[in-house]
């Protein structure tokens, strides 16, 4: 915090921005001080009581002052030393298993296993020790880009050991079991394809051993199939396909009903995906929605839903081509090129389009110029929201070593359970767009070098590998869902 403060204190105009940013990270993120105890470290929430704990935080409004932050102390001490498990400790489940009096049900076995995972994470945090890793993974998260590197590491280790995802077999491609592998929604198809490839270590062989259930529907494919030609924007058809699917699997199997959907998830990068739940909010109340379009003002709930990055995947590749220009070779202060999509971009273009040599903002780019090269030559890359909050520019910026400048309102940042975005990005709320240059010039060279170095560190979490690898984007996605599963206790 001290470092963050000293770098910014000269720019007093940015204080509200700073406040909003902290507010964003510590209030809306599932691993803020209050809720980290919900997610991993406390006695988990019995499913019937989940509602009372997971109250929706009020939306942030840029016009009215935000409600008082629940985390007045900025240092995210993730586990207070006075914390201890209550008498109805989950470990009793484990002991129960060790002296088997009666045969455990499948669900009891799963819950006992999850209790062990919670316990191991809690111990790793307390010991501040990277303990029980069977680290053939070769990577151990450390450093300030993580909100708590110890808990993340242990939680990832536990996931590798225990996560079992059942993929429902019902349905036919292209609406189900398929998805786009390329372009800005490509993560949707890459994820489904990875899970269905038969190569994923997380694939459950039988639903009885699964601790999570994937609804393998592709919203992009539904839109591309059922909405061609596009004569209506009504979400009815989309909503009906998903409702029907859940109807079928909850009729055929006991799993949806026993958890009310709390251990079920769907992954979609499409802008329309959040609208699925509007058809029947009650049905989707506990369902985990993994979305690119993570707008907290449109019903995205950071404690239950998962925000994933949008990534532009060119044909024949798995993401933007990395570049490694050193910080002193970056001659452009800030760069943006793109369409005037949405309100925030309008404001950005109005203030900055082709007006400044240092803050280079273009509405689209001259064909002769290379977009990626220019981003790679920039210190900061402006990543404004477009029609929706997420933008593939964030991952592109990270891939080319350019510090992302997030210009958005209501955006729940990807993987912010684990990642501390203040350490490798700059946040500018939309009303500060006129002050972009002042804000960025107010960042000292020393602080810039730190930010830039951390961008290169965090890159591994924004890369796609096939098959997926520990700590890559697909594992980060799964880990986010895994954390939410750890937050839930299913009664047997
Ligand atoms: C622990 O569980 C027992 C039996 O279910 C219950 O009577 C008791 O009130 C619980 N204690 C706490 C602190 O929740
Ligand atoms: C950390 O964990 C390792 C392996 O479990 C153990 O050998 C070591 O003593 C621990 N170190 C500390 C400081 O607790
Ligand atoms: C799950 O609940 C629904 C609605 O109450 C019911 O129609 C369905 O038969 C149940 N499924 C199973 C497998 O019992
Ligand atoms: C986020 O949601 C709010 C409320 O619906 C909306 O005003 C805003 O435009 C959305 N943001 C983006 C970038 O779409």
From TrEMBL:
The lineage of its organism: Eukaryota, Viridiplantae, Streptophyta, Embryophyta, Tracheophyta. GO terms for cellular component: Golgi membrane. Residues 56-75 have a biased composition (Pro residues). Keywords: Glycosyltransferase, Golgi apparatus, Membrane, Signal-anchor, Transferase, Transmembrane, Transmembrane helix. InterPro entries: Exostosin, Exostosin_GT47. It is found in: Golgi apparatus membrane. This is Exostosin GT47 domain-containing protein. Its main location: Golgi.
């Amino acid at each position: 915090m001290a470092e963050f403060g000293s770098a910014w204190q000269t720019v007093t105009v940015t204080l509200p921005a700073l406040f909003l940013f902290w507010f964003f990270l510590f209030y809306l993120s599932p691993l803020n001080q209050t809720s980290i105890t919900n997610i991993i470290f406390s006695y988990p929430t019995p499913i019937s009581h989940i509602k009372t704990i997971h109250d929706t935080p009020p939306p942030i409004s840029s016009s009215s002052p935000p409600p008082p932050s629940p985390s007045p102390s900025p240092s995210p001490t993730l586990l207070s030393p006075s914390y201890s498990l209550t008498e109805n400790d989950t470990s009793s489940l484990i002991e129960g298993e060790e002296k088997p009096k009666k045969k455990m049900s499948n669900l009891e076995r799963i819950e006992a296993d999850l209790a062990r995972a919670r316990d191991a994470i809690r111990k790793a945090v307390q010991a501040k020790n990277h303990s029980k890793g069977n680290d053939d993974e070769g990577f151990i998260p450390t450093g300030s880009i993580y909100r708590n590197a110890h808990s993340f590491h242990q939680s990832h280790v536990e996931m590798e050991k225990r996560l079992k995802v059942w993929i429902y077999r019902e349905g036919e491609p292209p609406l189900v079991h398929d998805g786009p592998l390329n372009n800005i929604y490509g993560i949707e198809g890459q994820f489904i394809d990875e899970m269905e490839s038969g190569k994923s270590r997380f694939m459950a062989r039988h639903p009885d051993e699964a601790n999570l259930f994937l609804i393998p529907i592709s919203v992009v494919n539904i839109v591309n199939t059922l909405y061609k030609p596009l004569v209506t924007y009504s979400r009815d058809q989309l909503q009906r396909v998903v409702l029907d699917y859940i109807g079928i699997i909850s009729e055929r199997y006991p799993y949806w009903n026993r958890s009310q959907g709390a251990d079920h998830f769907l992954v979609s990068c499409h802008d329309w995906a959040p609208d699925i739940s509007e058809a029947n909010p009650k049905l989707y109340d506990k369902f985990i929605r993994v979305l690119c379009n993570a707008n907290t003002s449109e019903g995205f709930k950071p404690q239950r839903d998962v925000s994933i990055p949008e990534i532009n995947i060119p044909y024949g590749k798995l993401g933007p081509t990395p570049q490694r220009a050193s910080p002193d070779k970056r001659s452009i202060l800030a760069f943006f090129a793109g369409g005037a999509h949405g309100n925030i971009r309008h404001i950005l273009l109005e203030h900055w389009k082709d007006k400044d040599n240092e803050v280079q903002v273009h509405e689209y780019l001259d064909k002769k110029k290379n977009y990626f090269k220019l981003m790679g030559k920039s210190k900061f890359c402006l990543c404004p929201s477009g029609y929706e909050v997420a933008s593939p520019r964030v991952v592109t910026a990270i891939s080319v070593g350019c510090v992302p400048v997030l210009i958005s309102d209501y955006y729940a940042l990807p993987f912010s359970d684990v990642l501390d975005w203040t350490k490798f990005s700059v946040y500018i709320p939309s009303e500060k767009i006129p002050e972009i240059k002042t804000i960025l010039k107010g960042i000292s060279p020393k602080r810039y070098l730190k930010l830039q170095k951390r961008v290169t560190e965090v890159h591994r979490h924004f890369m796609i590998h096939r098959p997926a690898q520990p700590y890559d984007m697909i594992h980060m996605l799964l880990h986010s869902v895994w954390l939410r599963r750890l937050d839930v206790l299913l009664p047997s």
